Amino acid sequence: MSQATEFTAQQNDASFDNIWQELLWRGLIQVSTDQAELEKTLSTESVTYYCGFDPTAASLHLGHLVQLLLMRRLQLAGHKPLALVGGSTGMIGDPRPTTERSMQTKEQVAEWVADIQAQVQPFLSFEGDNAARMVNNLDWTAPMSAIDFLREVGKHYRVGTMIKKDIVASRLNSDEGISYAEFSYQILQGLDFLELFRQYGCTLQTGGSDQWGNLTSGTELIRKAAGGSVHAIGTPLITNSDGTKFGKSEGNAIWLNPKMTSPYEFYQFWLNTADADVAERLRIFTFRSRQEIEELARATEERPHERAAQKALAWDVNSLVHGVEATEKVIAASAAIFGNGELSDLDESTLRAATAELPHTEVAQSGLGIVELLVASALVDSNSAARRTIAEGGAYVNNRKVTDADAVIDPTALLHGRYLLVRRGKRTMAIVEVLGG
């Protein structure tokens, strides 16, 4: 994962009275403990806070990005972040609403812990007076015996309260039920907050509002076991204006790992944001000021065809997650695909990502005639149609117009020794992979 943009480019909006007011305006507070007390504390003290990330996959996704940016905004306001990657909770996994998670091996979880830690690190500053700290809950759960866990932690929990938590209640009412392992997850998360409270004076936990039961598990445990008063913030679950789940397309998550969602796909995801959603996305996922976002919102209303807000959103978020250089490559790739740049300048992974949704054809040999190539790509359905397209000036290979129907493709024209971008007219394209190239 590339480094995030320079921290000097990130700042909170000075037009707000305090960080709490900005978080409210950005739509980042769905539920919390005492709001008045939180606003006062965050405005007058340096608070140590944490957010947990369980390694249940090799990468974080867009839901986690909300938390990472919330953490960064709080750090910019002078507060001290603890980024917890759950080496122990990741072995159990927080309960899903409908089905039990598949347990991973300890070795797999440890590998994913390292992956997630590497993803989290660029979003926070680990230097200065309020430097971030990376923590792993395996450090305090692994040495604890089952008896110690039950005596020191379990005794503070009441089963009647635990089964009323939304996720637990949902699973209890399902055909599958819930295992004791997943049922106990809220205790493990409560233990995390207690341990961070004791070790680092942590008094605030953030997470998604769907985790509210787990968040309050910690606040209650600290009250009972340590006599402490702490806070929790639950961010809203983000949905599109049409009610569909944000960040999902046909069941596929948008990952932060560029090997799982390429920078090109990531950029296009943001660029394709609906007009009705773009202002909200700018508030949540960028560091643009209130004035800038309001100006972009007006531009969307007055000149929607320009898509200025979507371009700003895609640039900012892609640059934040994958770096400015990767974003510039993505934009260059988009231009090159439509003839406004050199395809040969694109690295292979960017070319593949940029053409991933085009029709793809494999041919066994190089040196194809242009007529054969047009037919093989399925852009035309016959040799005569191919010749007619060429005669009318509508045939292109790698953005170069082909005017000779008897022309043969030079093997040196293959992009990265194997690809040809074939185009009919302005926008009808296919990618041909020459296996014997």
UniProtKB/TrEMBL annotation:
ATP binds at residue 248. L-tyrosine binds at residues 50, 185, 189. It catalyses: tRNA(Tyr) + L-tyrosine + ATP = L-tyrosyl-tRNA(Tyr) + AMP + diphosphate + H(+). A motif ('HIGH' region) lies at residues 55-64. Its EC number is 6.1.1.1. Keywords: Aminoacyl-tRNA synthetase, ATP-binding, Cytoplasm, Ligase, Nucleotide-binding, Protein biosynthesis, RNA-binding. One of its GO terms (molecular function) is tyrosine-tRNA ligase activity. A motif ('KMSKS' region) lies at residues 245-249. Pfam families: SYY_C-terminal (PF22421), tRNA-synt_1b (PF00579). It is found in: Cytoplasm. The keyword Transmembrane helix does not apply. Gene3D superfamilies: HUPs, RNA-binding S4 domain, Tyrosyl-Transfer RNA Synthetase. Residues 353-430 form the Tyrosine--tRNA ligase SYY-like C-terminal domain. InterPro entries: aa-tRNA-synth_I_CS, aa-tRNA-synth_Ic, Rossmann-like_a/b/a_fold, S4_RNA-bd_sf, SYY-like_C, Tyr-tRNA-ligase, Tyr-tRNA-ligase_bac-type, Tyr-tRNA-ligase_bac_1. Catalyzes the attachment of tyrosine to tRNA(Tyr) in a two-step reaction: tyrosine is first activated by ATP to form Tyr-AMP and then transferred to the acceptor end of tRNA(Tyr). Belongs to the class-I aminoacyl-tRNA synthetase family. TyrS type 1 subfamily. Homodimer. This is Tyrosine--tRNA ligase.
